[in-house]
Amino acid sequence: MMSKINFLKPDKRNLNTFLYLGFSLFFISLLDVSLNSFFRVNLTGFLPNFLSFLLPLILGFVGLYFIRIEFSGINKLDLLNKHINTNNFNAVLSLLIIFVIIKSIPPILSWFVVDASFAGDSKDVCTGTGACWTYIKVWMRRFMYGMYPNAEQWRINLSFIALVLLGSVGYFATDKFKKYLTLYYVVIYPLIAFLFIFFFISGGPVFFDFSYGIIAAILSIIIGFFIPNKFKFYYFLLVPIALYIVLKYFIFYEEMIELGKLDGLNWVETGAWGGLSLTFIISFFCLIFCFPIGMAFALGRRSGYPLIRYISIGFIEFWRGVPLITVLFMSAVMFPMFLPEDFFIDKLVRAIIAISLFEAAYVAEVIRGGLQALPRGQYEAAKSLGMGYWKMHIFVILPQALKLVIPGIANTFLALVKDTPLIFVVGLLEIVGMLNLAKTNPEWLGFAMEGYVFAAIIFWIICYAMSKYSYNLEQKYKTDR
Amino acid sequence: MNFKLKDIVPQLITVIAVVLIFGFFTYNAQINMENRGIDFGYGFLSQESSFDVQFSLIEYDGSHSYFRAYLVGLLNTILVSVIGIIIATILGVVVGVARLSPNYLINKFAAFYVEFFRNIPLLLQIFFWYFAALRALPLPQDAEAMFGVFFLTIKGLYVPAFIWENFNIFFYSIVAAIIAIILIRAHAKKVQANQGKQIPVFLISLGLIFALPILSFLIGGVRLSFEIPVLKQLATTSFIYEGGVSLPPELIALTLSLSLYTATFIAECVRAGIQGVGKGQKEAAASIGLTPNQVLKLVIMPQALRIIIPPTTNQYLNLTKNSSLAAAIAYPDLVLVFAGTALMQTGKAIEIVSITMFTYLTLSISISILMNWYNKRIAIQEK
To answer: What are phi and psi of A49, to 5 degrees?
Structure first.
């Protein structure tokens, strides 16, 4: 059966010979590298240094060359050849990648898990060569909540849980309430979130005049859903004001606050906020603010009025042309000069305003892309129905355009989350800033690597989840049109 | 009349609002500056700066003016951006092509790289390289030489310096080679259009770009020697390398993280561009008898570039703007030198921040004008 074998040209006739030979060479090369990497045994140590180093590559290459037989009739072999072994160049690259993976597993594994220390709560336990996860454990609260007092951290947790629950309302809403969801997410939810952050996380005197109004409005809108249409007019005419009066003069009246019965939670100044929770707070507010601003400027840039158009173009191009760090510099050192002397704005608020304006320019460009992508027929059809500018945009153009740009918007928000660490410029420390602070603590010197890896993992999970989610949204809405 | 009023009123309201906002700001700024005794003006630029910068491309010390400090920062920013753009482009193109490879392992490896580096904030990456990775490098006295001449130490990378004799002749020879290549290309195009003959332009160009500089060495009197860094002891435990060029660790960390981060985005642009060229184009080109290389050069690339260039320009702009993160690791770029140190010394917040922002605006706009020009050149010429 054995016919002549030409080792330079593997063919189908001697399939089995070539397969045995090729696979054994391939596995020998893998075995050599694995042994070298996992057990530090060098099988080919007797050879000259240079040859010993290259031998697995040569063996693997010859092995792969032998098994590269087209249309062998064996499904798996064909698949293997098609995927990693199409030609000599690809074979070498595949081998190199496999070797790199094998070589890098042991050091990574040993640093992350095997030699790492997890137990204890002081630096003394970290004697091994691996990572010191104890450091992360001890500093966890700082990385999550910044300088926020330990005893008060339940407020942050509670607020976030409440906001997540309130935010997930959309999933559970029945058809009857679906049409109010936009109103809820655009107006009510941000207001509730603001109240939570302002009163709960920040603490301090609970009620001031403005907040009675907000609470009265929210309560009356929520109750308003259940009022029959017939009475809605009278309801909205009377109830909010009545609620406001009841709240202000009967339930949370000033004497009660002064008596200390309702003096609220301890005031935690924004300088003490920090860690991952600050990342979330900033991203959340910037997300809420930059969207309407961006939408306004996107419409402005396509406006028929030249002056409005030029102002919008100027605004957008200005913010897109400068780096965020200089914008934050501006908000820190230049902006206070532009305000009346006794007018003080908290630095967190200034940072949020700066980032919102900055991101708004990017959002504007994304939305403009969506507006331009709509066929002209949509505008003309809306106009021919007698719709004015606002009616046309609100009911016809924007719903379609926004659907088109969902992935773009999601990417902008992703960039926003990744930009939040920059607030170190104004002296606010979110997770990366806290890491840098912890790194310089004399008791915990030398654990920079662990900290950065930890933060990188957290950010990676958040950003990767967001990008996958936006990809899913894109796929979902693609079928709609 | 009514129609015109409808046109004017919204514009008027907007303009008045903008003017009011700006007026409010300037008014407050004036009052604030009067109260604090600061006067507005750019005169400080010519004053003596009296601070030092640790890494500078031009001669600079404390006795130079603030304007020169500004130039130092600007040049450092441009240096980082240019190096970053070059590395990011090469890496991005390689990874982008690799993502389209039929080889499963290469494909996944490239995808892993892109997903990994894209989803971690750039600032965190810069900190990682600077504070964690580069700090693990050996001290100068323990460093092992790479190829005998490079020394990668905790204090930076030391590379040999080029010492030229008659550098200008060498420079002119390169310029002459480039001009000759441009002329030959134009000639070859003409010949091909008139007679259908093909001149091996690429080989001739390759020959020229090597031959002329070599000639300049042989007969032009150009000499090139290397100054290899040598370890020198300053004190019992303090060592330093002397001679050669030293690249500070800040620069290395910054270029490394900027290019690794931006390359992921460029890779995605390249992938989208190549995927955007229809399969039929390739098949049609192959069916009229072009070789695979010609298909890539004459059919695929010109079309793919049209898709690739606009988003890639954006990435170049982003890289330039992101280079301002240098301030976080104390690399003396424009933000650190000018908006940091100089602002701290002079207290001229408005002037300095506005100059800095204006500089970045100019940089961004000039890159985008350059790229728009190039983009227009390769765009489809519709007749």
So the answer is: -50, -50
